[in-house]
Amino acid sequence: MSSSKGNLENYLIPLEEINLATKNFSLERFIGGGGFGKVYVGTLSERWQNCTAAIKRRAPDSYQGEDEFRNELHMILKFKHENIISFIGYCDEADEMIIVYEYATNGSLDHHLQYANKMCDITWTQRLKICLGAAKGLDYLHSGLGEHTRVIHRDFKSANILLDENLVAKICDFGLSKWGPKNQPITHLNTKVAGTQFYLDPAYHESHILRKESDVYSFGVVLFEMLSGMLVYSERSLGNKAAFLMTLVRQSDEKKVHELVDPHIRHQISSPSFFIIKEVAYQCISLNLKERPSMAIVIGKIEHALDIQGLPGSDVLTITDMCVGDFLILHPSKLKFPLELKKHSLCSLHLTNKTDQFIAFKIQTTTPLECNVRPNNGIILPRSVCNITVIKRAVKEAPPGMMCKSKFKVKAVVAPNGATTNNITNRMFDKEENKVVEEFTLRAIYIHVS
Ligand SMILES: Nc1ncnc2c1ncn2[C@@H]1O[C@H](COP(=O)(O)OP(=O)(O)O)[C@@H](O)[C@H]1O
Ligand SMILES: [Mg+2]
């Protein structure tokens, strides 16, 4: 590697110092563990600015040993990135193998995912920011270490994503990571398969060829964990089946997958942001390596989802009441006219274009004399929302059962890039061979005004 923070020896911490900080590795200081050993929290002395540190000590019975220890040390010494946990020092006195890091106050993400009452406090926007941070950390490993170096994490999972006091994600645990040259025509390594079962790329498992796409796969699994608010190795029921998360993810068709979303955040997620994340997550876990995006692309998608999520008014477009098609998502799935006798009644319909193409739409109603749809046609830009207002003529008395006989037919079709409303013709929506015209029929009801 080209850049270096200096000699490893400068980072030596005496065992005595560590014993003091962890109260001789007492149980009360224990904060976590993994394949390497146990991790303790402790405050170091003045020489280390009294900082609070996480102290990872190899367990004598660990299957990981000197190799993983040295590997992690040599890696972490070189890394400098906001989304990679900072290295403080190490100790190899006596038979000890200890690594000391900056302490991440909010612990690892898996601890949150494990308990619904912890995870429900993390909003959709915060989850997106955590994913963004983790994606930036991975991108740094894959392509931010200079011209010639690329690191593959190899054990990316929610247990190896730490959260600091501001919920900023910090990737940790580089014991299994591999570094190698970046600009070789075939950037892969032939290795003994390592990693954690549920996050492990099946393609790597089968071929033993390690590529950075394997980290992308694991990242996709974490995205699904964040969407569903559950750990990949816990079971969940969908309909009448209970299964592991990734089985459900692979079995769910596009119209069903939103049922996997964590009920605690359903009302917060704007549907365009949901569809962007869902799509990129599916691309990450694709069994076809070529379909997996680079981490740089993933970052762009998450940023886009965050931008959309932040738009004023977008919180109305939650995924609880919608129709999903190939091009459009309609909110709500049934029009609801507030009933005020002898007054016009008004309701909104939101059309979200979930594709990367320009989409033309038109809306017709079965009762054109009673309903005015504005606009009743138009172009929706990629990944954008079009708000429609439907005005219904006044009625003198409440209809039986609050039923409304108006129906609305929404048609959608891909339009040429750059198309405007002026380019819309009725013929565009005619069904022809090899052309997809999407069609929805929306019903309507009256609702009492509170
Ligand atoms: N810097 C840290 N701050 C807070 N918790 C940490 C820190 N480092 C590790 N942990 C906790 O300890 C666990 C194990 O640490 P990790 O570095 O992943 O070791 P292992 O190689 O044994 O998996 C993490 O999942 C996390 O819960
Ligand atoms: Mg770990």
Q: Name the hetero compounds present.
A: adenosine-5'-diphosphate, magnesium ion
Q: What is the CATH C-level name of the largest domain? A: Mainly Alpha
**Cα Rg:** 27 Å
Under CATH, the topology of the largest domain can be stated as: Transferase(Phosphotransferase), domain 1
Question: How would you describe the oligomerization state of the chains in this entry?
Answer: single chain
Would you report the number of β strands? 23
Shape descriptor reads: elongated
Class from secondary-structure proportions: alpha+beta
Task: Tell me the strand order in the biggest sheet.
Answer: 1-2-3-5-4
Number of domains: 3
Mean pLDDT equals 89
Low-confidence segments, ≥5 residues, pLDDT <50? Answer: none
Task: Give the termini separation.
Answer: 67 Å
Q: Approximately how much beta-strand content do the residues carry?
A: 25-35%
Q: What is the CATH homology-level superfamily of the largest domain?
A: Transferase(Phosphotransferase) domain 1
User: Biggest sheet, in brief?
Assistant: 5 strands, antiparallel
The helix count comes to: 10
Characterise the protein shown here.
There is one protein chain. By secondary structure, the protein is an alpha+beta fold. The protein has three domains: 5-102, Phosphorylase Kinase, domain 1 (2-Layer Sandwich), CATH 3.30.200; 109-309, Transferase(Phosphotransferase) domain 1 (Transferase(Phosphotransferase), domain 1, Orthogonal Bundle); 326-448, Sandwich (Immunoglobulin-like), CATH 2.60.40.10. The protein is built from ten helices and 23 strands. It has helices spanning 15-21, 66-78, 109-114, 116-119, 124-143, 202-207, 212-228, 245-251, 271-284, 295-309, and strands spanning 30-33, 37-43, 52-58, 87-91, 98-102, 149-152, 161-163, 169-171, 178-181, 189-190, 209-210, 235-238, 241-244, 323-324, 328-331, 334-339, 345-353, 358-365, 371-374, 377-380, 385-392, 403-415, 438-448. The strands form seven sheets. Strands 1-2-3-5-4 form a five-stranded antiparallel sheet, with helices on both faces. α5 packs antiparallel against α7, α5 (124-143) packs antiparallel against α10 and α7 packs antiparallel against α9. The chain is elongated, with a radius of gyration of 27 Å. The N and C termini lie far apart (67 Å). 40% of the residues are buried. The mean pLDDT is 89. Bound molecules: adenosine-5'-diphosphate (ADP) and magnesium ion (MG).
